[in-house]
Write a structure and sequence with these properties.
With 204 residues, the chain is α/β, with parallel strands linked by helices. The protein has three helices and six strands, in the order H-E-E-E-E-E-H-E-H. The chain starts with a helix and ends with a helix.
Length: 204
């Protein structure tokens, strides 16, 4: 008895979640308005109502769309994605592929322009070639490699400076030790000479 009841509750909760309006969005009928919410690619809602026909995501801070983000919205008829700073590197491949699958009447590609890298700025994502995207990926990797090399060089310079400072300190320490040893020996010799002189004076 308890098991069927739990299954019914889980089914109802699943249905409620699938029909619930995402956080930070406004839903009116089958339209989900998530525009101008300063959403980033990491803060996008993870699910939308199953019957969503219009999805507004324009004027946010989206740089990429996660893989499979729009695939489950079978009833989708209109999407607005303009006004976002899209980064056209390897991460844009899903968005480009999704836009290419959509009918021209959907007009989802309008205003979906690259914000970076500089070589692709202003280009429509849907018209990018795979080679251009792959080149931008190489560009990004080159920047990362250059940054790594600069950091490694700085690390080596710091290590060399520390080693030089350690050598200078050791030389000064050795010099001070020699001076202290010499002073101690001179003091010992002077003390012995003074003792002999006092001994002679006492005998006289």
């Amino acid at each position: 008895m308890k098991r069927p009841l739990l299954l019914c509750l889980l089914f109802l909760l699943r249905g409620y979640r699938s029909s619930a309006c995402p956080n930070r969005c406004v839903c009116q009928g089958s339209q989900v308005n998530c525009s101008s919410r300063t959403l980033t690619s990491s803060s996008l809602p993870t699910s939308f109502p199953a019957g969503t026909t219009e999805l507004l995501l324009h004027k946010n801070l989206l740089t990429i769309l996660p893989n499979g983000f729009l695939d489950h919205l079978a009833s989708l008829r209109f999407v607005s994605l303009h006004g976002n700073p899209w980064v056209c590197d390897c991460g844009v491949l899903y968005l480009r592929a999704w836009l290419m699958r959509q009918p021209a009447s959907l007009k989802a590609h309008l205003g979906v322009n690259c914000s970076s890298p500089p070589s692709l700025r202003g280009r429509l994502v849907v018209y990018l070639t795979e080679q251009e995207i792959l080149d931008s990926c190489h560009y990004w990797y080159c920047d990362l490699a250059l940054t790594s090399q600069v950091c490694l060089f700085a690390f080596v310079v710091v290590q060399a400076a520390l080693l030089g400072a350690l050598l200078v300190f050791l030389r000064r320490f050795e010099k001070l030790s020699k001076e202290a040893r010499t002073t101690a020996e001179d003091s010992l010799v002077a003390g012995e000479g003074l003792g002999e002189h006092e001994y002679i004076d006492s005998r006289i």
